[in-house]
Amino acid sequence: MKHDKPRDGSGPAKEGKERPTLKTIAFMTGLGITTVSRALKDAPDIGAETKERVRMVARQLGYQPNRAGVRLRTGKTNVIALVLSIDEEIMGFSSQMVFGISEVLSGTPYHIVVTPHSHSKDPMQPVRYILDTGSADGVIISRIEPDDARVRLLTEQNMPFATHGRTDAGLVHPYHDFDNEAYARQAVQRLVARGRKRIALLQPPSKLTYYTHTRAGFLAGLREFGAEEVPLAVNIDTPLAEIRDGIEALMRSPDAPDGIICSSGSAAISVNAGIEAAGKRVGRDIDMVSKQSAPILNWIRPEIITASEDVRLAGRELAKAVIASIDGVAPDMLQSISQPVWDD
Q1: What is the spatial distance between Cα 57 and Cα 280, in angstroms, rounded to a whole number?
Q2: What is residue 55's predicted lDDT score, i.e. its pLDDT?
Q3: CA–CA distances in Å: residue 203 to residues 210, 232, 239, 262
Q4: Which residues contact 66 (CB under 8 A, 6 or more apart)?
Q5: Which one has a higher pLDDT value, 61 or 196?
Q6: CATH class label, 180-308
Q7: What's the whole-number mean pLDDT along residues 203-208?
Q8: What pLDDT was estimated at residue 72?
Q9: Is the N or the C terminus of the chain less surrounded, counting Cβ atoms within 10 Å?
Q10: CATH of domain 1-64
């Protein structure tokens, strides 16, 4: 006698034939559909053991929520959009950010969608697109300006969001930031401890908020530890080849610094190349400090003094902040700053 597969999807899905559903997971676990649904949403009234059992079965079945159906039922997309700059990305910054966000989202119904863009183009375009299409429940943005038009627009539209960096225009919003002021001050301290007194700063572009933080820490360090600044005509957004050429020219000049601080790991590679092109060497003729998001600089030149910026942690904090914002948590409760961790 032929036994037809249940039409309501209550039995296990046949591989390659039907998409697994909540009913499939319920059938496999012996739980109710409502319990399965709440377990996948990490509901607080569902026990940890039940959640783990449901998630294990869901992974084994390859279960994915039907986003179109979810959106029709709830008005939600279960998408977090990460708007990420892709310029001069050679040090793993973007991948570390994505890893951190994904670690948090893996235990939730949310999925990350990366929206890459170039900082040389209109930064409003990806944010407007997300708002116009309703393609995400929350947004994460980076490269923040003191009075950031994207932050104002997202706030006005009541779109949950979090920023990698702070604003300075009286807007209270979720953010995670790195303490660039502490980094720059401590970098000066380390260079002076090595006898360096003429220090150059390869800083962020002046339009970004962390330029102000970096400059404040740098100038405070110069005053406190008794050093002077050697001006640089380039910044971390300058094309890498131009950074190399600019550093080479400076190192060949009578005004060459004996210490340099970099605000970008990628740019530090160009700085080192420029120093060596001028016939000089880090650790002998000049000392260099740089922050990095991956332990690569020390492989290239072990003499570089490095501080780790934990971008993976930043991704986790930003994901938690934007989800909490979606859930209605007050923005002033969703702000955090991480400290530099020196690799010496």
Answers
A1: 60
A2: 87
A3: 9, 9, 14, 7
A4: 19, 21
A5: 196
A6: alpha beta
A7: 95
A8: 42
A9: N
A10: 1.10.260.40
Contact yes or no for 119/103 (Cβ under 8 A): no
Span(s) in the chain for CATH 3.40.50.2300: 76-178+311-342, 180-308
181-200 residue pLDDT tens:
999 999 999 999 999 999 99
Domain with CATH 1.10.260.40 in the chain: 1-64
Q: Which CATH number applies to 76-178+311-342?
A: 3.40.50.2300
Of 84, 161, 95, nearest in space to 321 by CA: 161
Of residues 33 and 286, the one with the higher pLDDT is 286
Mean pLDDT confidence for 85-94: 66
The two tokens of residue 87 are 């310029």
Do 143 and 171 form a contact (C-beta atoms < 8 A)?
no
Asked whether residue 1 carries a pLDDT value surpassing 50, the answer given is no
Q: What is the pLDDT of residue 67?
A: 54
Kindly state the tokens that stand for 13. Answer: 């899905």
Calculate the average pLDDT of the chain.
88
